[in-house]
Amino acid sequence: MLLKVGELAKRSGLTVRTLHHYDAIGLLTPSARSDSGYRLYNRNDIARLHQIQALRRFGLSLADVGAILANPGSHLASIVDRQIQMLDRQIAQSTALRDRLSRLQGQLRRGEEPELADWLTTLEMMTMYDKYFTKEEQKQFPLLTTADNSTAAEWAELVQLVREAMETKVSPRSQGAQTLAKRWITMLMRDSHGDPRLLAKLNVMHFNEPDVQAQTGITLDMIAFVQQAYAETKYAIYQKYLSPEEMEFLRENYLNSTNKFPALIAEVFQHLEDGTAPDDPRMRRLTLRWMELVRSYTGDNPETQVKLGEAMAQHPELLEGSGIDQRLLGYVRQAMSHLKPHC
Hints:
Layout: E1 3-4, H1 5-12, H2 16-24, E2 32-33, E3 39-41, H3 43-57, H4 62-69, H5 76-109, H6 116-132, H7 135-140, H8 150-167, H9 175-191, H10 196-208, H11 210-216, H12 220-238, H13 244-258, H14 261-274, H15 281-298, H16 302-314, H17 326-337
Antiparallel strand pairs: 1-3, 2-3
């Protein structure tokens, strides 16, 4: 059975213009044309369109989708599997919210009257958390509870100290700011169990949800202050290995580049947990992105990259707070070794 572009657009919920664009960029080229020149799509074309739309829902750009589909290792079954996993997470999140509402309903029916402000605040916060974290992840992560506990009190105290440091114009380069930043990172790694997937989700949530910032008191400016102060602890080590010119380049580009790392680290970590081979095409794509990010703050000089490698070998603490441990780093290095014959 062959479908004309208008029919496919109607059945798929896309516009004809979108399908024409996919054809123009080589993402979805119809397998046939009618005598009148109309685009005709067969079963294989529709299966490919399914893959395209599934990958787009995972947040990938059209360029990334094209790169994945150009890889012979991509299979429709694995993409459908990822869709099912995503829907399972959404179902679990909706179920968790329903359970909470049911408990609140039962409390109200028994004549118990919780503070309305507390009730609404909890509901708002947990609804936002449900967008980003599964029920199990929320149980693992003390930061995601609004209940009174020692962890919440500890964070409230630290947030206040950082706010006061910022209000009094304490420099991120000062020892006091660096001490606060080290405490912040230590607590963050402790409460996330060092899981880069949780760290990446928390990062996205905080940047996307102003209400979370208001509830926690952790503003984007505060995060930037902590990041800058923590980076200073690393610069102190790197400057022992780099020339003044190399350090200047590093300082200018380090934070902007490393802010792009959390999502990539989380994706690589998931492949490690799944047992994906280092030479798998998916890891090749991720490793190339990894190398590009590293070059963005080290430059293209191989000697500079060697110096930074030496610094990391001598100072494992440079990895602290990144979600990268030696196991993950070794996995990335294995993947890099498979790139060399192709470079």
